[in-house]
Structure formats: C-alpha cells, structure tokens
Design brief:
Strand order of the largest sheet: 14-15-17-18-19-20-21-22
CATH class of the largest domain: Alpha Beta
Number of strands: 22
Shape: rod-shaped
Mean pLDDT: 83
CATH architecture of the largest domain: Alpha-Beta Barrel
Distance between the termini: 71 Å
Helix content: 40-55%
Number of helices: 21
Radius of gyration: 56 Å
Structural class: alpha/beta
Largest sheet: 8 strands, mixed, barrel
Strand content: 15-25%
Oligomer: single chain
Length: 709
C-alpha cells in the first residue's frame, strides 16, 4: 500500500505520531543516559573516597613498619579513620582482613571479626566473596560491582554499588558502597523534570501540528468537496480561501477561475442547446418547426422514392390570427396556438407528423397513411376541431382555418416544393372562400403561364432587360454605410416589373440560374469598374449567389476571369450564399469556401435560421457574416419567441467571432431592439430602400450615416 492511498489527514496524523514517538524516544534515551551518568558519577565518588582513605592507611602502615607508632596506635588510628570517614547522606567505609573477615564496620560493629561466609543475613555473599578474593590475589587490584546487600538498619537486601581496593603491603581490603535505592529520589526528581519537559514539548508539537493540520487539511477537504460539486455541475457555491497567500490560496483562486469558466461554458452550452432546440422546435407549442418538418418530409420522400408511395402534406393556415394578436396580445395568441396544437395532436395518429410552420400556420405530414384513413374525412375533422370555440378568460374565440394539400410525387419531389405549394393552395382556398384545396386543382392554371415566363426570362438575360439596385447595410458601431447588397430587377416589356420572388425560383427550376448568376457577376464587375474610374469610394458589394453556381468546380476560375476582365479586385466583393449550400458534405464545402476566400472575396450566409445549417455546423467554416432571416425580424417587436431566437443567434455567432447582419428592419423599435441585442449590422426599408445606381452614388457621395438612439 502506497502513501497515495491515504488521505492528507491520515498522513498528517501519522506524521504527528512519528513526531510524538521521536520526542518520547529522545526523552527516554536522555533519561537513560542521565541515569548512566549518575551511576558513573557515584562510581567516581566512591573510588575517590576509598583511594583517599587507602593512601592514609598506607601512610599509617609505613609509620608502623618504621616503628614510629606502635601496633596498638596503628590499630587505634585505623579504627578512628574508618569510623570517622563519612560522605554523602549515608556513605561509610568498611575494612576487611584476610580476604573475607570483617575487621572494621562503623555501621555494623556486631559483624566485626566475622567472615562473610558465616553471615546468615540475606545477602549476595557469594558474589561479594568472589569479588574480594579476586582483589586479594591481584596486588593493586580494585574492583567495582553491584551486589544485593542488606542496609545497616536491617531489612531486605537491596542493590548496592560496591567498590573495594587491596591496601598494598597489607592484607586489608578497604571498601565502600552506595545503595541504589538511595538514588531513587534523585532519579524520580530528574524523571519528573524530563517528563514535564517532554510533555510540554510534545503538547506544543501536537498543538502546532493540529493548527497546521487545520490550516492545510480543512481547506483542502473543503476545496476537494467544492471541486467534486463543480464536476457535478454545481456552480452556485462560493469558493473559499481565495484570500490565503499560500499554496492553498493559489489552489482556491485556480478553482475560482475554473468555476468561472464552468459558468461561462454552462451559459454558452445553454445558449447553444437553446439555439439547437429553436432550430428544430417551436418554443410555444413544442412542435417541430418548419426546418425540422422540411427535413422529416425530405427523409420520407427519399424513403418512398423507389416505391413511389404517396406522401401527403397539409398546410393548415389560421385566418385572422395576426388581427387577434393585435387585439389580445402575444400571451393570448400563444394560448390559442397551444390549444389548437393540443386539439390537433388529440385527433392524429402516431403516423401523422405535426409542425408549426409560422406564427399562424401548422403543417401536417401523413406518414404511412393507413388505407382505411380517408384524407378528405381527416381534413374535415381537422377543420371542425380547429373551429370549436376556444375559451380565453371571459372570451370564446372561434378560429377559422384553410388547408392546402399537396401529394408526392404528383406535386413535387422536394420538401420545399410540397410545403410551398401546399401554402399556395391554402392561400388560394382563402381567396376562393373554400375551406381546403388540392394544389393539383390550381397547378394546371399555372403551368402555361410559367412556360411563357420562362421563355421571356431567357430573352431578358440575352437582351439585358435586367438591371441592378443596391440596398445599403449599416454598421451599428458607427452608424455608417458598411456595404451594399446587390438586388436583381426585371422590367418585363409587357407585364412590367416582375418580382425576384417569381423569376428567381423559375430560373432555378428551369436551369437558367447559372446564366442569371453569370449576368449578375458580370454586371457588378462592370459597375465597380465604372465607380473606380470615377474615383468614387464605394463600399463592399454583396452578391446573392445560387448554390448551383457556387459549387461548380470551375467557379473560382470563372470569378477571376470576370473580375480580371474589368481589372476589379475581388476584395470589393462579398458573396451571399443561402443555407441550402451547407447541406453538402462538410469537408467539401469547407474546402470550397476556403478556396473562394483565397481569391479575396468575403462570404456570408444569407437567410440564416430557415434552412439546414446550425451554428454548431458552421463554427469551423471560413465565413465572415451570417444574415438573420427577415422572418425573425418581422415580428421582433411583438413576438418574444422571435426575439429569443435572434438574441441566441447573435450571442452564439459573436462567440464564434462572426459578424451578424439583421435584414428586413422596418421600424424604429426593431432597430432599437437590435442595438440592445448587440447586433453588428442592419439593413431594411427603415434605413434605405433598394436604390438605383444614380441614387446609390448620391448616397455614397453624401456619406450617409443613420441616426443613433
């Protein structure tokens, strides 16, 4: 088991225990060595006393041998010396003769004359006798040893530190000793001193360790718990200890920064998820939106392609809903939509797919329609269900609906064809005051006129009946004109002005769109050359381009050829692509966009929010701008859902370093809302309608700036 398996608290406790053990061990060793030093000191003390007395006995013996004193005087002086010598509290000398015969003993005179072998008192006689014999056989021998011996005042034998020395030229052995238990009070006093000092040091070390432990462990445990909560997504807590100046403070401040990153990531993730939800679902009814319905319808068309099985689509238009919104407000309108959606879901089967296509319309796709389900009976049931009065507070509101019906493959093999044509059928039904209408009932009337218009469009391209107008885009950071969008116009010799909403889809369906794109590119290049020659400082010109032309393999070469012909740099140009281009393979479209940008032209995505793209898909694409579709701007001041979508798109796009353009701005309130939402660029009739070349040149010359709020 490694240290990493233990908690910091356990490690610190272990460290404190080791420290405490070290302190106690050190104290015990110190006491032991002190004890040994005391014994050594006592040994030196008794050795010194014995040697001092021995030198006096040697001197007396020499005087006796020199006959300076008599034998009796010698014995008397020897007696006086032994009996008078004392040291310490209980120290005394004794004198032995003939190895083990007690000659003089100041504390036990009753033992004088006796041999140690004859003493019957409890004592370690044999150990004493062996030591004395060892001394007597070796001249100048002295010996220190410990024996068990009774005290002079009687009692049991106790340990005694004994020292004895043979007196030269005599048969006397002089000895003394110290009873070990006489040292116990001193040992106890010293032990108490060591214990007190050890206890103080130990308590101080433990207290310091506890303080340090709390200063380290508690913050770490707290920070660890906060880190775990943050990993679980709890960002509401406040990180503590950020004021610390040590490593704990560094960890806390790093954790606080991590928390802030999590909060920011959570906010961006929520915004991203909200945008993703809004890309597929209507926030009011929680039904599919137009984009999701289009994808679902496209999949169903592909699934039935080989079998040519029928797929029906119903466009359900609620009449006068906009008027009710003006009268009752957004909240009541939303309640009407929710109630209508719930009613429709209640009568539909699992194979029916319902969506909210716009503010006042629903779409219904019949998937794998059972044979026993009659389409016309279902339509009548839907109409009756919608027309039932809806109770709103004290009001009963009755909604009238119109339904347009298309079928695959008869009415088209693309989702936008089926949806668009069913909407045309619903509008036609209203004009003809019918409840519902098949698109096939009006299709035949359109085919003949469409063929004639197609022929006229081809002629118009060849004979230059088309012309350009320019609608300025304004930068909200400085309110100045930033660029201009090129718009194509057609003035038919007989029918008069033809809307681009009519002839551009016709060009796409009839194969004329590439010729139309070529005409526009050539016309823009020619106009830019004219402005350059006139030294007119025109802004960047944006060109709407079809995906068909853009995705052609030779598009970049074609772009260079056209603009090189007029010696115009492509840096003056911005290409606007619809979202449909982005349904291509991501790697392919990314490479294509990069190669086009390398020509010098910038790129923007037009009508964002109505097609297939998403911010998550375009985040790695080399584009400069995204243009929020006009349908989101139209009701920006009245529809809170549109406002939320616009705010979410702006937030996410700017997070991806993309500029956001809002098109279709028609009211002061819309402009104010877009300013507040931090939109970058705006265009619309409020600021400027599409201008002819002359009017646009006049605007450039005036250096027009919109008024700020």
């Amino acid at each position: 088991m490694t240290l990493s398996n233990f908690t910091i608290r356990q490690k610190l406790i272990g460290l404190v225990l080791i420290l405490a053990l070290g302190i106690v061990t050190t104290s015990c060793l110190a006491f032991y060595f002190s004890y040994q030093d005391t014994l050594s000191g006592k040994k030196e003390q008794i050795r010194s006393v014995v040697q001092s007395a021995a030198s006096q006995i040697i001197l007396l013996n020499q005087r006796k041998n020199a006959q300076e004193i008599t034998e009796q005087e010698f014995d008397q002086r020897l007696h006086d010396l032994i009996y008078s010598t004392a040291y310490g509290a209980h120290g005394y000398l004794y004198l032995l003769k003939n190895e083990t015969q007690i000659h003089l003993h100041p504390k036990r005179s009753d033992l004088e004359g006796l041999y140690l072998e004859d003493i019957t008192e409890p004592a370690d006689n044999q150990l004493m006798i062996n030591g004395l014999k060892q001394i007597s056989t070796e001249p100048d021998k002295s010996l220190c040893w410990t024996v068990s011996w009774p005290k002079p005042d009687g009692g049991a034998s106790v340990a005694k530190l004994t020292y004895a020395q043979l007196i030269p030229d005599t048969d006397f052995i002089l000895g003394t000793g110290v009873y070990i238990d006489d040292l116990i009070p001193r040992y106890i006093k010293r032990a108490l001193s060591y214990f007190v000092v050890t206890l103080i040091v130990l308590l101080t070390a433990i207290a310091t360790a506890i303080i340090i432990s709390r200063n380290i462990v508690s913050p770490i445990i707290n920070l660890s718990a906060q880190m775990e909560k943050l990993s679980e997504g709890d960002t509401d807590q406040t990180v503590k200890f950020t004021h610390h100046g040590d490593e704990i403070g560094q960890m806390a401040r790093a954790l606080e920064r991590f928390r802030e990153y999590l909060i920011e990531n959570k906010r961006l993730r929520y915004a991203h998820e909200h945008v993703q939800f809004l890309e597929n679902f209507d926030p009011v009814t929680r039904l599919y939106n137009r984009r999701a319905m289009g994808e679902s319808l496209e999949r169903e068309i592909i699934r039935n392609f080989e079998t040519q099985g029928k797929v029906h689509f119903l466009f359900i238009r609620l009449d006068l809903l906009r008027n009710l919104t003006i009268e009752l407000g957004d909240e009541q309108r939303d309640q009407i939509l929710i109630e209508t959606a719930n009613r429709l879901k209640g009568i539909l089967s699992i194979n029916h797919r319902l969506a909210k296509l716009s503010e006042g319309s629903f779409g219904l796709m019949l998937v794998n329609k059972p044979k026993d389900t009659k389409l016309e009976e279902l339509i009548d049931t839907i109409l009756q269900t919608i027309e039932r009065p809806i109770k709103l507070q004290n009001l009963h509101i009755q909604i009238v609906a119109r339904i347009g019906v298309t079928s695959y493959p008869e009415d088209g093999d693309q989702q936008f064809e089926l949806i668009g044509r069913s909407e045309i059928a619903a509008k036609t039904a209203r004009k003809q005051e019918q409840s519902w209408l098949y698109f096939s009932q009006i299709k035949e009337q359109q085919v003949e006129s469409k063929m004639e218009l197609w022929q006229d469009l081809s002629t118009a391209i060849d004979e230059n009946q088309l012309y350009l107008v320019f609608q300025p885009l304004f930068d909200l950071s400085n309110n100045a004109a930033l660029s201009a969008e090129t718009l194509l116009r057609w003035n038919h010799p007989e029918l008069g002005p033809i809307s681009p909403a009519v002839f551009v889809p016709l060009a796409e369906q009839s194969g004329l769109i590439s010729r139309l794109d070529h005409w526009v590119l050539n016309a823009v290049a020619k106009q830019c050359r004219a402005w350059l020659d006139a030294e007119l400082p025109f802004p960047k010109i944006a060109i709407n381009l079809s995906g068909i032309s853009f995705l052609r393999s030779n598009f970049e070469n074609k772009l260079h050829t056209i603009f090189d012909q007029y010696d115009v740099s492509l840096e003056h140009i911005e290409l606007e692509l619809t979202e449909g281009v982005l349904i291509e393979d991501l790697a392919r479209i990314q490479d294509k966009l990069q190669r086009v940008r390398e020509t010098g032209a910038s790129i923007s995505i037009d009508d964002f929010g109505t097609g297939y793209s998403s911010l998550s898909r375009i985040k790695n694409l080399p584009i400069d701008h995204i243009k929020i579709d006009k349908s989101f701007i139209d009701d920006l001041d009245a529809n809170t859902q549109d406002l939320k979508i616009v705010q979410a798109i702006i937030l996410m796009a700017q997070g991806l370093q993309l500029k956001v353009v809002a098109e279709g701005v028609e009211t002061e309130l819309q402009l104010s809302i877009l300013r507040e939402a931090k939109c970058d660029i705006v265009q619309g009739y409020l600021l400027s309608r599409p201008l002819s070349v002359a009017d646009f040149e006049a605007l450039i010359d005036e250096d027009l700036i919109i008024e700020g709020d």
